[in-house]
Amino acid sequence: MNRRNFLKIFASSLAMGTVTGISNVVAGESWKNEFSKALKEKPWLLGYEGVSGDDFEETTLTQTGEIPDNLRGVLYRNGPAQHVVGDMRYHHWFDGDGLVNAFQFGDGGVTHKGRFVRTAKFQSEAAAGHAIEQGFGTALPSMRSPVNNDAVNVANINVVTHGGELLALWEGGSAYRLDPDTLETLGLKTWSAETKGLPFSAHPRRDVNGTLWNFGYATSFGALVIYQIGLQGNLKNVNLIKLPYSSMVHDFMITEKHLVFILPPFHHVSDRQGSFLDRFEWRPERGGVALVVDKNDLSNVREIDIPPFWVFHFANAHDEPDGSIAFSCPMYQTPDVMTQGFRNIMRGRDIGTVGSRFMSARLHPIKGSFAYEEVPEAAASEFPRIDDRSQGRRARFNFLMKSSGELSQAGFNRVCKLDQETGALTYFQFGPHEQAEEHVFVPDPRSDQEGQGWLVGTSLDFKKRRTSVNIFDAERLENGPMARYEASYPLPFGLHGNFVSKGS
To answer: What is the value of pTM for the model shown?
Structure first.
């Protein structure tokens, strides 16, 4: 069978699966009422309350400090935001409809506007006034089983620019095109006729030559589809990789020579009932698998057995002279934070799971070996970012969000820089009522030195009920923000974003 026909068959099999059981529903309980009651006693839940489907009009934020002269552009952020549809509150944080926020950095300060992505799901449910489609972690008797991935696409994980387009990304469906100025939804992105409807994951990696690499996974087919997209947005190559087992793959890595995928032993079980998430089972006794793909020959794939662990996000990876691949990431012993923790939050309960450990790992494709060591200073961290000019190459610095304790309140209170050469961790700690979100590195255009630039991101003061944008000197985090721009309102917690410099 040729690749084109194989892709067509693959695309036709991508529905997340008919779901008949309701294993995550507790009869007689209202998650909406339970959360509202808990919020009065636990104000730190504010970031998970969500908002209605109304957009945020452009607003000028209150200024403290000054924007650096060379920091001009837009910080785009995306995340689940509408958690209640009709009288139904979603049973998982990842199910909320996507809200894309744009923070414009200009000579006059910082402005904010936000707009929900008008997905097919969002529009049909807005018209009906109640929830229609099942989600990633919510499957109620009144909800419709998904007929294909884009029927339940909430476009709520990441937002990136490439080839002159702004794209809102989800885990298992197509990208949505947005107007970069108004944030208006322009429709689904189709890279080519043969890839129409294939999943396009939320964590693409941009190579130093401008190539965008990405993947999509389909559990029902047990395969990965790999995309290689040119600088101008043209699809240069696409290939399918049959997996040894169907697993959930959220992120991946690139080096100068390879693509690297970690398959955790989170197995899709087709006859399990419940939501899409409920159809996975953690089987640590089977171990995990690492896939190493040759970037110059996407059919050349090596499999390496690895210990069982769960990863949301990788920092970076690079090729070593001895043929091994070094990488780093926050790791978890199990995916409990996703399977249970983010369900607890939606009911107003403590997340109830242990935070991550940070590891520095070495994978050798030829020898088939894997080893790692923990970095204790970076434990309980997430959302690793680097200076993207070092993407796929040896990077000295990791920028992390970290909790000073356990993640029982599901928030981070430190923004950190980990020096991988010295092991030193420097950080700024926010106040007792402030929860920080992902901060991204923005390089100083006057310098080509790694790590010279700024960290830009958001935080929520749940006591004041206000979201702020923070600007840090990336070389002097411990000094605190150089500038802060405060909104007069809180924004729901988001997931990922990127800064687009003016003129780029």
So the answer is: 0.95
